[in-house]
Design brief:
The chain is mainly alpha-helical. Helix content is 49%, strand content 8%. A hairpin with a 4-residue loop joins β1 and β2 (89-92). The longest helix is centred in the first third of the chain and has 15 residues, at 3-17.
């Protein structure tokens, strides 16, 4: 399994872990720091069409896996993050602790 396949698998597993999380505890679309940017993305995706929950989720998160893979690769190249099978995932390198 390549690194990107592994990351993709882990991201998908993580998504499943978010099922049932109460979204009202952190309403990102109403966050004053982002100025409703998430809400704007939703409105943009819905303009002129009706979408299911799954379609909206896919449209709003489609680039997350590739961004995560790229960021982890960059952090590993900078020796700031490493993958540890023994520790069960990614961890900061010693000089980051």
């Amino acid at each position: 399994m390549s690194k990107s396949e592994f990351v993709r698998t882990m991201v998908q597993a993580g998504r499943k872990g978010f099922e049932g999380v109460d979204s009202t505890s952190n309403p990102q679309g109403s966050d004053p720091e982002n100025g409703g940017a998430f809400e704007s993305r939703i409105v943009s995706e819905l303009e002129g069409q009706t979408r299911s929950w799954e379609e909206l989720l896919a449209a709003l998160t489609e680039d997350v896996e590739s961004r995560l893979d790229e960021a982890l690769s960059d952090l590993q190249a900078q020796n700031r993050v490493r993958y540890s099978g023994r520790e069960g995932g990614y961890t900061l390198t010693e000089h980051e602790h």
